[in-house]
Every structure is written in structure tokens, then in C-alpha cells.
TrEMBL record:
GO terms for biological process: protein targeting to membrane. Residues 312-366 are annotated as: Disordered. It comes from Steinernema carpocapsae (Entomopathogenic nematode). Residues 108-234 form the Palmitoyltransferase DHHC domain. It is found in: Endomembrane system. The chain crosses the membrane at residues 7-31, 37-55, 155-179, 199-224. This is Palmitoyltransferase.
């Protein structure tokens, strides 16, 4: 699964394909005839590994945490909203937007995501591009068109390391061809004229090897220290900034840290791909019937005189069954901002369920 802005992913595929086409057209035939046919075969195998890891990174769920449903949000608000609790518990409820858990003796705060409406697990963060909370969020990579998280980090690491090996291998093969051709043609200019496509391949590899190999080295350091890019940038476990904070996710040594990320079984996806998304009921309010009394609605006058003067708006409830429409087709008082009625804490559970199920989306026709 890919993010909405995935056009850069196509550029990545094009750059790799274009460079390798030039290589197989200009460099590979010469090396097959004058050196050995194994050199182009090895480059083809590395290229296959690069594309396999790239597609696996791009089309794998990075660890998306499903957003909370309306019923779950209402139940959470009933637990956290001070209006539902006695006066003595209101201060405690206000602090529950941030929870604290202990991981290997280290206190970790779980922040509340107001977009996904849930408490994020440890090491998780919300991606503004994908608009989802991601488990073990590392970063959003536009070159692969996806977030890098708990479920696809190993494939991303394989992609950048295999791409580094491919660039270094192609660069070495191109230099080898140029050296042999210079010896045959008795000059660098004559060699370039004989194979003009060799020089572009050499330049592309030369300018890209620094960034790709540097990125591979940086993520190798993150693997060895059991960190994510997000944690390293924020300095979450930086001993210089926070001398008393230690990394609770270390496994003891470098090899165990790498084994834990690269070799353990892949985590199951939390997304139900076969599930049916049921939209909330939609209430359409005719605003034309509120003209003349709209100023009173905006001020929020709820007196008996203003309610008599204001016309009741027409309410149309869109639902799947006609019987449901008959039950929910009721006039509602005109307000400047329609809002949902809060359930009383002493009501029965059945009434609470009915109130929770009436969570609607208001659409106003002008």
C-alpha cells in the first residue's frame, strides 16, 4: 500500500531502470566478450534484488494503526471527560490525555493522537502525509512512496543496501571497461567515442553513490543502536541532552539489535482488508427555513419566545433501511452549530447505546 503522493516512487523506478538499460547496452556486452559473462549476470541478480525489495517496501503495510471508531471515541470521552465524573476525579481525568508506561525500567509517555483519536503505542507517531499513526515510525520516504515502520523497515534496509552494492558494482564495471578500452584505443577520447554511453553511466553512479551509501551507513548505525530516524532526529535517547535517559529497546549488543529487526517474523497487519466500511448517517438541514431568525440562532438564544418564532428545519436522514429512516426522521431545533446531545451518566446502558449510535454528520444545504 502506498501513500497519496507516490509520484516520486515512479521517478525512483525510472532512474534505476534508465541507468541499468544504459549499462546493459554499452558496458555489459563489452565485458561479456573481453572479460567474463559472469559480470553482467551478477549485476542482473543484484538488480532483481533491488526491485524486489523496493516493491516490497512500497506495497507493504508499514504498521498502520486503525483509527478509533465513533463508539470507541464516545466511550473514551466518557472516561476522560470531567463532566461525566464526580468533582474529586476531574483533575485526574484531565491528565489522562497522556499515559505513562514502563518499558524495561524506563518510563515512556503515550501521547494522544487527536486525528486518529487514540493513544499511540510506544515508538509510534502520526504521519502527516499518510494521515495515519504508524507502529515504530521511522520516517516517510517519498522515494519509495510509503512510510517506513515496523512491518517494512527490513525491506527498506535491504533496498538501500542492495542499491548501494549495485551502484558500486556498476561503477567498478564501468571503470574496468574504460581502462580496457583506453588501452585498446590508445586514448581516453577515442575510448569515449567508441562507446559514448559509458560516460553517462559512470557519471550517474559517481554522483549517486555518495548519498545512497551514506544513507545505508546511517541506517546501519540506527540498527546497531536500536533507534529509529524519528528518535535520532528528536534526540529521544541522546545521553548528551538527557543524561538520565537510556534506550529501553536495546537488546544487549549490536548483533542482537540487528537480529531483532531483520530476522524476526514479520508482525501481522492491524488492517482488516476484507472489512466493510460503513459510513455514518448523514443529516441534511435546509438552511433556507432558518432565514430571518438566523441571527437569533447565531447568538444562541434558547428562550421559549425565540423557539416559537424560529421555523423548524426539515431533517432528512440518509440510512440504508427505510425503517431506520422512519425512526430517526425527527425535527431538530435550529442552532448555529448542530451538536450531539451528551448522554446522562445515570441513564441505562440501552439508552446510552442508542445515544452513541446516533453519531451523525451534518451537511447544510444553502
Amino acid at each position: 500500500m502506498m501513500a497519496k503522493q507516490s509520484s516520486v516512487f515512479l521517478i525512483t523506478v525510472f532512474l534505476i531502470t534508465f541507468t541499468m538499460v544504459l549499462y546493459f547496452v554499452s558496458v555489459a556486452p563489452y565485458l561479456s566478450e573481453n572479460v567474463t559473462v559472469a559480470l553482467p549476470i551478477i549485476s542482473g541478480l543484484i538488480l532483481g534484488l533491488v526491485f524486489a525489495s523496493l516493491f516490497k517496501t512500497s506495497f507493504t503495510d508499514p504498521g498502520i494503526i486503525p483509527k478509533a471508531t465513533n463508539l470507541e471515541v464516545i466511550q473514551l470521552e466518557q472516561q476522560l471527560n470531567p463532566s461525566f465524573m464526580p468533582d474529586g476525579e476531574r483533575d485526574y481525568a484531565a491528565l489522562q490525555r497522556t499515559k505513562t508506561v514502563v518499558v524495561n525500567g524506563q518510563s515512556i509517555k503515550l501521547k494522544y493522537c487527536y486525528t486518529c483519536r487514540l493513544h499511540r503505542p510506544p515508538r509510534s507517531s502520526h504521519c502527516s502525509v499518510c494521515d495515519n499513526c504508524i507502529l515504530n515510525f521511522d520516517h516517510h520516504c517519498p522515494w519509495v512512496g510509503n512510510c517506513i515502520g515496523a512491518r517494512n523497515y527490513r525491506y527498506f534496509y535491504f533496498f538501500i543496501t542492495s542499491l548501494s552494492c549495485l551502484i558500486l558494482y556498476v561503477f567498478a564495471c564501468t571503470v574496468l571497461q574504460l581502462v580496457l578500452m583506453v588501452q585498446e584505443k590508445k586514448g581516453f577520447i577515442e575510448a569515449v567515442k567508441f562507446s559514448p554511453l559509458t560516460l553517462p553511466v559512470l557519471l550517474i553512479c559517481f554522483f549517486s553513490v555518495w548519498s545512497i551509501c551514506g544513507l545505508s551507513g546511517f541506517h546501519t548505525y540506527l540498527l546497531a543502536t536500536s533507534q529509529t530516524t524519528n528518535e535520532d532526529i528528536k534526540g529521544t535517547f541522546n545521553t548528551k541532552r538527557r543524561p538520565t535517559v537510556s534506550n529501553p529497546y536495546k537488546k544487549g549488543n549490536v548483533f542482537l539489535n540487528c537480529y531483532h529487526v531483520l530476522c524476526l517474523p514479520e508482525l501481522p497487519s492491524l488492517i482488516d482488508r476484507r472489512g466493510i466500511v460503513r459510513p455514518d448517517p448523514v443529516v441534511t438541514v435546509d438552511v433556507s427555513s432558518l432565514r430571518g431568525n438566523w441571527s437569533a440562532c447565531a447568538v444562541g438564544i434558547n428562550s421559549a419566545e425565540s423557539r416559537e418564532n424560529m421555523a423548524e428545519p426539515a431533517v432528512v436522514v440518509s440510512n440504508s433501511s427505510p425503517a431506520r429512516q422512519a425512526q430517526t426522521q425527527q425535527p431538530i431545533p435550529a442552532r448555529s452549530r448542530p451538536r450531539e446531545e451528551e448522554p446522562h451518566p445515570h441513564e441505562s446502558s440501552d439508552s446510552n447505546l442508542n445515544t452513541n449510535a446516533s453519531h451523525v454528520t451534518i451537511e447544510m444545504e444553502r
